[in-house]
Amino acid sequence: MPDFLYAEKSVPPGIGMGSYSAGHIFWIILSALAIYCATRYYRKADCGKRRRMRRNIVIAMFADEALKWFVTIPTGQWNWAYLPLHLCSMSMFVALLHYKTESPMSKEFLFAVSLPGAAMALLFPNWSSLPFLNIMCMHSFSIHLLIVIYPCLLLTEGFTPDIRHLPRLVLYLISGSVAAFAVNSVLGTNFFFMNGADEGNPLSILETLVGPWYRLGFLLIALILWSAMYGSVYLIKGKKGSMATEEGQNG
């Protein structure tokens, strides 16, 4: 099989791109440019163009996910792990829900869960064993990039995250983790990383140190990220409020 078609479970050792290699850095730079260009265009677009852009990103997510099946099934590499039950895969459905309903909880999920999760995946890819010029490698980077872009557009549009929604999100995540653990037990998969932290995942360091207790690392990492993310949101909101007050007084 040519290197271009290998999936993670069947790729021979020694031909992978590697984390923070030239290929990985290329994807990080490309992702940053794509996010910048997308948000810049979105900021200047009218409501109709913004909605079409969100629709096109959702379509691209599902097309990107389908590509994985079109590659792995004909080549005999498909396995249960390719079901869309990973947290980032579920973000596609939440993005679709938001496009259809614009519900507040879908926005909050995309900001608090999808955005940091996909960004961490781009920075710490667990598919670095794949070659740089490999369709599954390209798929993994592109799908996570799309998942990052969608909530960035919502923030550009003026969406203000609300920390009061976090308790409900935590309950959803706990319920999802329990369900993932059950599915993993039946299918031998590793959805939600419940059965081990993959290589390249920061949780692998915790797993080495504390064994199965590494799962608590999810909570620790989430608390750190949410503190930074929501803290930044409220700091920016406070500064904007102060500036508006000063302008009103000066006026």
Model description:
By secondary structure, the chain is mainly α. 68% of the residues lie in helices and 0% in strands. It has 8 helices and no strands. α2 (47-72) packs antiparallel against α3 (87-101) and α4 (104-123) crosses α5. The longest helix is centred in the C-terminal third of the chain and has 35 residues, at 216-250. It starts with 21 loop residues before the first helix and ends with a helix.
Instruction: Give the helix level as a range of percent.
Output: 55-70%
SSE string, helices as H and strands as E: HHHHHHHH
Distance between the termini: 70 Å
- What structural category arises from helix and sheet content? mainly alpha
Provide the gyration radius in Å. 19 Å
How many extended strands? 0
| Beta-strand percentage range | under 5%
Shape: globular
Short précis:
The chain has 251 residues and is mostly helical.
Keywords:
251 residues, mainly alpha
Task: Show the helix and strand layout.
Elements: H1 22-44, H2 47-72, H3 87-101, H4 104-123, H5 135-156, H6 166-187, H7 203-210, H8 216-250
Helix pairs in contact: 1-5, 2-3, 2-5, 3-4, 4-5
